[in-house]
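Researcher: Structure for this, please.
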Amino acid sequence: MTQATGHPADPARPSRPAPGPVPEPPATTPGTRPTAPAEHASPRSRSVWPGSPQPLGARYHSGPDGVHGTNFALWAGGAEGVEICLFDDDGHETRHPLTELTHEIWHGFLPGVRPGQRYGYRVHGRWDPWSGARWNPAKVLLDPYARAVDGDFTLPPEVYGHVRDWPEQHLADTVRDDRDSARHVPKGVVVHSGDTSGPGDEWLDDRRPKTPWADTVLYELHVRGFTKRHPGVPEELRGTYAGLAHPAALEHLTRLGVTAVELLPVHQFAHEDHLLRRGLRNYWGYNSIGYFAPHAGYAAHGSRGSQVGEFRDMVRALHRAGIEVILDVVYNHTAEAGELGPTLSLRGIDNRGYYRLGDDPRRYADYTGCGNTLHVVQPQVLRLITDSLRYWVQEMGVDGFRFDLAAALARSMHDVDMLSPFLAVIAQDPVLRRVKLIAEPWDVGDGGYQVGAFPPLWTEWNDRYRDAVRDFWRGALPDVRDLGYRLSGSSDLYAWGGRRPYASVNFITAHDGFTLRDLVTYNGKHNEDNGEDNRDGTDDNRSWNCGAEGESEDERINALRRRQLRNMLTTLLLSTGVPMLVAGDEFGRTQHGNNNGYCQDNELGWVDWSLLRQPGWRELFDLTARLIALRRAHPVLRRKAFFSGRPQGPDGLRDLAWFTAEGAEMTEDDWYTPGTTVAMFLSGNDIVGRDARGEEITDDSFLLLLHAGHEPLDFPLPGAPWAEAYELLVDTDPESPGPAPERAVTAGTEVTVPPRTVHLWRVAR
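Model: Predicted structure, token format:
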């Protein structure tokens, strides 16, 4: 019978519902353990040895007297009892009580339990949502430290700790549902895995590319979406880790020239109930539930632990290609959502210990917009996150992390605090402080926007760069002040505390929002396929459709759109900072105006490789690859220090200078004057810093000219002392630019710049 446990009367607390009828729950009485369904029941075993509280999770090893087995250890601070549940291939369950409790960790060693064994936990304790206690032993829980997960989350009523369809919905989360969830939830899998307490990464360390931040070009991709339609990847490997490791996928990345892939979430995640009800799935994966387990849905070779080796092989293959692997990680919330969400793992282990609760302990503090927020100030939560991060570095070989809604992790009690325990622990950790750390520097709570505020060691997604570049090329900037900062490394945001220009991850598009092609094709979002009446997704797109909404047969509009794509890609790859591309933008990928494709696990969300065979899009790829190669060849385009604006080198030229549309040096007033043109002179003389041999770094000097006006511009090339002559290297006006002309153009010559065009001129030697 479904129970609402008793509690002394409290005048400040609304009365609780009396127990009522629930469809077919197994009968229990308060304080007893619910019985598993008859066909799954089996006697409890007492053959559990004491084992060890360290490390947490399931660790297969040789125990006392050389007997092989698995040690299970689970932190469950306020629990009254814990059972480890083993499942055979037919789903039959054997329960073993863990009787050892050390520092709030329940543990035991089970002889004979080997890799491949599926398991879960049942955790006993009080059911009192009014105080935040939500223990329910009828629910089989995923081990937070599980290294692999077998099965999928389908979210029938049985996986909810409360009665989901209770008539009084405002009290539904207070009524315990005692139906057993065992047959409806995926299980953890015991795997061969080392301990994360030691160095443990010698097997990969000498193969890591270790690309310096200043030389990094990021490429955001989705493991499934990048490979699902790739014609060169064997069909059985498409959409998988093995598919991304295939030579055909690697060839595209190496030809393009990117140095790191930033993978959308690959931690085990669950699909939200509201999506499953509409026949959709969570495609992006920002709904984590297993922080140590590679998502089983991306495994080509099974989910009984083989996904771990498959993921490692993918990392090795990318490293051999000279490409680093950065994971997009979601430690700010979990897939258990708010108080009406399912009971899958942490909620049933210790709800009050893992989650930030509100002033009303029934509710969750939600700084993420996803229903809950992990309580990172708590030591056990901080340990879970840092253990997970070290595991992915040391045992899985990854090179860094991009932290989703990182401001939520930096909150102490309520406010964002750059001296928070999470940031302090990362800064002193000998493993984590040496990998790439990228913050999405905001969350949805009060004071959550923190662009420019993260401490040294961190880089940040710079949405101010995104907005300025979009606005400039659609003609919406009031002046060029903000653009000047963004092109030159955003010193207004990052020139403090020893931070460098590469603290800014420059991007124009990301997974969230329009693709680059859609940015020049649609003025408004078109998210009808998401089933939310086009209410979801941002309305602040800063896009321009070039005169027609959606795809057009007008070749003049299409030519303008392709030119705008060339302009934005050229701007991105020639700006100071770390550029980030999104998979497919380099050859015109479209989502047909959907700017929130999080649930589109279909051809709308997958990369369409046939575009590379269509006129105009192959040329866009070639330009992108050429720009990346140009950036790699010239250190002045990937500076390690901010510009000073002071004379540098023997000729006394300033390292950075700005020019108006008339070819004159900009004055203070010019920055405040409306305009659609800006030119930036980059001096290659005596670049700040030294090479590996301690020698001074010098390079060519360049003039980058951005003209967003709709009329041609006659621009006089700046003369002495800046240059005597120039050579045009990049011109975004022609559809298929040929080789740069050999003839130099004398300084002072007036050159005609077509409408909406970027020129890159090199100072002739």
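Researcher: Any notable elements?
Model: The first strand starts at residue 57 and ends at 62. Residues 224 and 282 are 12 Å apart (CA to CA).
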